[in-house]
Amino acid sequence: MDNAVNNEKIKILSIESSCDETAAAVVENGRRVLSNIVISQIDEHKLYGGVVPEIASRRHAEAITGVVSEALEQSGTKLSELDAIAVTCAPGLIGALLVGVNFAKGLSYASGLPLVPVHHLRAHIAANYITNPDLKPPFLCLVVSGGHSHIVEVKDYTLMNIIGKTRDDAAGEVFDKVARTMGMPYPGGINLDRIAENGDENAYKLPRPKVADSPYDFSFSGLKTAAINIIHNASQKGENVNVEDLSASFRNAVVGCLVDNFLKAAHDLGYKNLVIAGGVSANSLLRKRLSAECEKLGYSLCMPELKYCGDNGAMVGAQAYYEFKKGRIAPLDLNASATMPISFFNT
Ligand code: KG4
Ligand code: ZN
Q1: CATH class in words for 5-130+308-345
Q2: Does the predicted model carry a pTM greater than 0.90?
Q3: Where are the beta strands (DSSP E) in 157-238?
Q4: Is 92 in the pocket of ligand 1 (CB under 6 A)?
Q5: So where are the chain's domains?
Q6: Which fold has domain 138-303?
Q7: Tens digits of residue pLDDT in 83-117
Q8: Residue of 97, 121, 178, 190 best suited for mutating to test ligand 1, as the one with most atoms within 8 Å of CB
Q9: Residue to probe by mutation, ligand 1, list 16, 45, 145, most atoms within 8 Å of CB
Q10: Ligand 1 in reach of 125 Cβ (< 6 A)
Q11: Which helix (H) or strand (E) holds 142?
């Protein structure tokens, strides 16, 4: 590991509030998690079938002081012992992001500690540095979350480019929407994954959309519509779909698209070190199928531990360490942004 040479110990307090989890962590040298506190708002958003942005912002504002205090306390670290404060500044729900960014700015001003801005998807990728201590760039990463589906070339810790992405819906989004249409509670992805375990993946015929002339791009919206049409057609005839079989068939189709494009990109670009990241990297079929394919091909595969797949503060602290070492310090007029390319902070 980079830091073994000079025995430096960089401790960063990191804050995450981009969607429906209020989270904070203290991470040492980007790899050692001293504390990781996550408060989820899922139970409240469940009532509405999805995240309500205004409610998310309010709950973040209520929770953030307690979550940060708890992260400091559990890590046994005083504010004065920290080297920096990091915060997710983009992309995400703007009102939700602003709560974390403003809190971090206040704490940075009061403590005099430097403020490190972190891109949410870079943080998802960095979750792998916690789980896989020997992992180092370069590698190819499939980043799949509720809002994004990207194939990213991670050339260095702070140098990355997207080489494939979804043209419409993200993988997590279609899992959630199809699950909701079958009556599963939000967020449906994890429930659909669980129910699919008992189904027949060949029971329903679903398309495997490809994007013409862009072999690494994804398109999931037609696949989502095909699954939803099966459910609606059945209900118009007074019939029920077999939820286990449709879950298994749909999961198989989404995972098939992800795995095919990811492996094609790896082959074409000559990457043998593969990594997955984001909420959907918890999907059991994606993990199983990629593990088997990588084993066959002689590739290495890193995956985050399940508790670091979804949004958390530790992953922000992991990426912040590498951003901090590159000198990425934000001024106190740092703003949040709902969108931002992953290459925006390239150094
Ligand atoms: O990365 P994440 O926690 O939040 C975003 O940055 O979007 O990802 C959340 C997404 C949701 O769509 C959720 O349903 C999906 O990840 N997800 C899963 C699984 N666990 C979470 N999708 C499929 N299978 C799973 N096991
Ligand atoms: Zn996320």
Answers
A1: alpha beta
A2: yes
A3: 159-165
A4: no
A5: 5-130+308-345, 138-303
A6: Nucleotidyltransferase; domain 5 (3.30.420)
A7: 999 999 999 999 999 999 999 999 999 999 999 99
A8: 190
A9: 145
A10: no
A11: strand 139-144
